[in-house]
Amino acid sequence: MVSSHPRTLSALDHVRILRLLPQAGAQDLLRDLLDNADLLPPREVPPGLVTMYSQVLLADAGGGVPRRVTLCYPDDAEPAAGFLSVLSPLGTALLGARVGDEVHWSSPDGRRFGARVLALLFQPEASGDFTL
């Protein structure tokens, strides 16, 4: 589940993810997010916004140890190493979220999950990389 308010995305991320939609199958949530997103040039992306290749510190809604994940494209995904595809339910939920947001998603078997974005440990745009 993606937040009901429009997300803000980097225009470059938006274009690249649109190209992935044919692989995404019935990814209605991702399509809705892209269709309703507010777009910014990469140089204008605020530092607390989750963009592609951002490293995020998440706290499960149910407690537990915070975990680090990096939002990536499908070819770079390695869930066991914390690299989550933007086409995954959690990856879609994170795209365009901000530090402090609670994100919600459903697993393929219908279980619902939630987590809070505690911090952005790395964001390409904040480090001056506008092409990742």
UniProtKB/TrEMBL annotation:
Transcription elongation factor GreA/GreB C-terminal domain residues: 48-118
Xref: InterPro entries: GreA/GreB_C_sf (IPR036953), TF_GreA/GreB_CS (IPR018151), Tscrpt_elong_fac_GreA/B_C (IPR001437), Tscrpt_elong_fac_GreA/B_fam (IPR023459)
Gene Ontology terms, MF aspect: DNA binding; RNA polymerase binding; translation elongation factor activity
Domain of life assignment: Bacteria
Keywords: Elongation factor, Protein biosynthesis
An example Gene Ontology biological process: regulation of DNA-templated transcription elongation
Gene3D superfamilies per UniProt: Transcription elongation factor, GreA/GreB, C-terminal domain
Keyword Protein biosynthesis among UniProt keywords: yes
Protein name: Transcription elongation factor GreAB
Organism: Tepidimonas fonticaldi
